[in-house]
Structures are given as C-alpha cells and as structure tokens.
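Page 42, continued from yesterday. The earlier attempt failed because a stray header line got pasted into the input along with the sequence. Redoing it now with the clean sequence only.
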Amino acid sequence: MNRWIKVLSLVIVIMLVAALGGCTPKTGETPKSAAIGNQNKTITASAAISLKDALTELQEMYAKKNPELKVNLNFGSSGALQKQIEEGAPVDVFISAGKKQIDELENKGLLVTESRKNLLGNELVLVVAKGKETLIKGFSDLSGETVGEISIGVPETVPAGKYAQEALNKLGLWAKLQGKLVPAKDVRQVLTYVDTGNVDAGLVYESDVRALKNGVKVATAPGDSHKPIVYPMALLKNSKVPAEARDFMNFLAGPEAAGVFTKHGFKPLLGK
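This time it went through. Structure tokens are written below.
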C-alpha cells in the first residue's frame, strides 16, 4: 500500500511541474500582463484651442505609429489650461499659445525645465463678417463710425487677445475702440461671433482663418506691432508616463508634424 502511495505522489508532483512549466513564458516572449500594461498607457496633452485641427490630425498619425499608446487631447484657452494644471489636473504635456502661461508654470516648479521647446509661430490677423469686407479693409477702418462691435480674446487669459491688445495699442486704436470691444473666452469664440455676424470684426491667428465659415480675412497685423507669437510646449513634472510623453513631444517637433502644422497655417520652429 505504501508503495502505491509513493508512486501516486510522484505522479502528482510530475503533473504539477509540467503544468507550471507550461505557464512560464518562453525565452524572448512578453508576458501577457506586461503587454496589456503597455497598451493601457495614456498621454494627456493640454493645448491651446487654436491647435485643435492640427493636433487632431497629428493625434491620428501618431496613433498609427504607436498603437500601444493612447493620446488624449484637452483644448481650451491657454490661461484656463494653466489654471487646471495649477489645480492638479493630470496633464503630461502642455502646449500654450503664449509664453506667459508656460513661464508662470515653470516659476512654480511644475514643469521639467529642460523639456521646454518653442514649437510654433503664428501671425495676428483681422477677420470681418460676411459683407463687411468692403467697409473694413484694414485696421485703420476699425475706428470708423459705421463699424460696429469687434471681438478679441480676453487679454488676461487668451494669448491672442493679449497680442491683439498690444497691436491695437501700437496702432493707436486701443483707447478709441473701448466702446466696441467684445471679449471672448478663446479664439474659436471670436470666430463664431464673426461667422454669425454678431460682431463686425475680430482678431485671431492666421491658423484660425481656415476655420472661418462665412467671415473673411482682410489684413495682417504688422510684425512689430506685438511681441513675437510663439507656442511653447513642456513636460509636466507630475507626468506618470514621462518617457512616452517625451516621445510624443519629439514627434510634434519633428519634420513630419511640421508639414501638418504648415498646412494649418502655423510656422514650425522645429523645437528651437
């Protein structure tokens, strides 16, 4: 009897060893749990609303090259996005339409300083509602009695609005237009006001012009009328996926992405 018990015990041990051996990954194989972990990695990028069309296209391009990663895009005015980050929003990459927001986050120690890059440039342009292009041909016409309301982004939170304020000041129009100005939460709202005819004119970026449905671009602000328009980007210190986030940033600063940005009216700086 004892002999049969010993034989049976040996058989059971052999079966257990074989079963466990079958569960061990072969040399060079990636465990399923590790593969699933890689697929679940998500990069969250907060970006100025003026980048929406270009970044949405680039998001699709990046996904094809990196199917194991997911990129979430969060758009808004640069000031609003800055506030979200300061309040602890889980963001990996921030792309602002102005240096002010990036500078303030850097001063508060929320950015990886050496990751900061100037990604894009842009131009400030004057757009008018349909039918107003014969009445408003340039900035000097804005103070005319026949011109109604003019929309710009709130200068304190919208970089385009700040550039607009600088340009109008330089051109001697800021004080004259105070009774006509209609503030907007971001450049896309300015476009909506112009497209719907709720205002006669608005100041936006060159890259926003292609999003107009009814409005028309009539002039570009002189380059020396405002500070250079620069879109900086940086990695956030609290990023949970810093390596992946850096790879996405490198993609955005590369030549392939530059072609897409150019198509959408931006001036790529190739990470300078």
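Notes: DSSP finds nine helices and eleven strands in the chain.
Reminder to self: strip header lines before submitting.
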